[in-house]
Amino acid sequence: MATAHDLRTVDPAFETQLMDSIDKWIARDLKPVVMHHDHGDIWPEETVRQMTELGLFGATIGQEWGGLGLPATTYAKIVARIASFWMAPTGIFNSHLICAMAIEKFGTPAQKAKWLPKMASGELRGGLALTEPDAGTDLQGIRMTARRDGDHYVVNGTKTWISNGIHGSVFALLVKTDPEAEPRHRGMSLFIADKSLPGFRVGKKIEKLGYKAIDSAELIFEDCRIPADQLIGEVEGQGFYQATGGLELGRINVAARGVGLAEGALRLATEYAQVRRTFGKPIAEHQAIQLKLGEMVTRARAARLLTFDAAEAYDRGERCDMEAGMAKYFASEAAVRNAEEAMRIFGGYSYSKEYEIERYYRDALLMCIGEGTNEMQRMIVARQWLKRNPA
């Protein structure tokens, strides 16, 4: 059955025009400010404004709500291109779009009409509030509760590692409406929570090794009263499926980020290897460096092919948790490996913050953890493989 994301196509001429616009924006506006924002961990307000003008906050939101309605394949191309120069901004609009997807795919007509046009325009920026201090990959272990009280639910608990937590406006919030339910996922529900709600406040900003400039924060709910009509779909017990329903696209996004990081590290290493000279010739002419470059370009290409294989399956409306898991696992590991090898090619200069390559390494490590650890991805891949290939 077709869902909100299925069976989308894009006019090739429009896609070319869009990618050209993004390339010009990267060269003109993004590249000159990356190191300033990354080193200072400074929220990129002007970059966010420019991404709003480019329509990126409505990239995968349907055209009927004012979005671009792009298929996952085009979206992955955008993410990979931007991430090859600076990965962090892609997380800002990805978290927003997963929140929007939950509303578009599972929300009531009134919920869609209320939230999606303002999210598509970027007037409201969204986030996905799933993770808790003791519940990350195991979402069924969350403790945040929502108790029905008349026309509201009273919510208590804390979320952590929430992208857009400080500068975002509205969040898809996963809670337990029935903490005693067995199996546990049947007691989980997903709400639309905006910051105007009393009892909803932002806790501490989380300082990170990489993934700088984008805000990751705690969200604290203390007797927060959320109107009952903001329960997505207005049916309790569907939250686990609604939350994980967006994770396939989220994992394709992370895979595309991995592709971008792997290709960006390769680009920097290739450029440096042709200008850095030792023993009277560019280091690119040394066999040891050529072996590294050969592995890096192959690894980046394989990551790209896996990622677009998953995106194409997603656009066909097929179940693609195995394909998305493979892409996310391989591309993120490729990003780490290519960043490490690029640092070896740069030698001692790679350890200096005057060069960009150290950021790629710091950013790549997160991709192996975010959107489900790579250990979990391999288990998902294995389980789906066994289901598809019974003895």
Summarize the structure in words.
The chain contains twelve helices and nine strands. A four-stranded antiparallel β-sheet has the order 2-3-7-6, with helices on one face. The protein has a three-stranded mixed β-sheet with strand order 1-4-5. A two-stranded antiparallel sheet has the order 8-9. The chain folds into three domains: 12-124, Orthogonal Bundle (Butyryl-Coa Dehydrogenase, subunit A, domain 1), CATH 1.10.540.10; 127-240, Butyryl-CoA Dehydrogenase, subunit A, domain 2 (Beta Barrel); 246-388, Butyryl-CoA Dehydrogenase, subunit A, domain 3. It is 50% helix and 15% strand. By secondary structure, the chain is an alpha+beta fold. The chain is globular, with a radius of gyration of 21 Å.
